[in-house]
Amino acid sequence: MLTTVVFDVDETLVDLRPAVTAGLEVVLAQMRRLTPAAVEVTLADLESDWGAVFGDLAAAPVAEIRRAALARSLERAGLGAHLDEISAMFFARRFALTRPFADTLPALAALRQRWTLGLATNGNSRAERCGLAGEFAFEVYAHCDGVPKKPAPDFYAAVCAAAGADPAKVVHVGDNPAHDVVGAQRAGLRAVWLNRRGERLPTDVLPDAVVTTLTELPSVLADLSGEADLPPFIRRCSGETSRVDV
Ligand SMILES: [Mg+2]
Question: Regarding the domain with residue range 4-14+100-237, which homologous superfamily does it belong to in the CATH classification?
Answer without folding.
Answer: HAD superfamily/HAD-like (3.40.50.1000)
